[in-house]
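Troubleshooting log. The previous structure file for this entry was overwritten by mistake, so regenerating from the original sequence record. Sequence copied from the archived sheet and checked twice against the printout by T.R.
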Amino acid sequence: MNFDELKKQWNKEDNESSAQISENMLKIKEAHTPVDLIRKKMKHEFYIQIISLIVMAFLPKLFNFSTELKLVFFIFYAITCGFTAYYFFKFYTSYKHSYDLSLDSRKNLLWFYYEMKMNLELYKALTYIIGFIALAFGCIYLLVIKNVALTKFISELPVLYLILNCFVSILLLGFITELWSRYYYGKYLNQIKKILDSLDME
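Regenerated output below.
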């Protein structure tokens, strides 16, 4: 092989490598659209959840809770705020850190994908926690505030019915949470995953 042929082969390999890099860069740039949409939705959801917590604080006034019920409500409200504050902290730090990254590399895009997956799992866990807190508040309301005797309560409503009702409520809560997370974030995360998979294959 003479020098000219070697030079041609070298140039061909350089062109192929440049084309490959350019194609990868285009794919990474393509991921910016779902990333931007996820960031926008994160910002909206953050404000919605803050407003929801503020509205919850006024429930005793709206429904004319008694003094005893107000005390119980605000204990459970404080617990809810404690769990939610942790979620907000994780959610907000992930959101801010995503802007510190250039997201022009596969590594940073991969970080964003798995960070959002973790945030979604935290979101689901928080939903279950708040659901159980609401259930506990309901039980205290019935058994303590309304002075409903436990034996009377059980005799009027069969135990099997109560267990089944709680089970169905938890299943329904889980189904709605899964559906909401998939609808709100899932489709955009799937787009990012497809781009990451195509980069892996190359």
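The helical segments are 3-30, 32-57, 59-62, 67-100, 106-145, 150-156, 159-201. Archived copy saved in two places this time.
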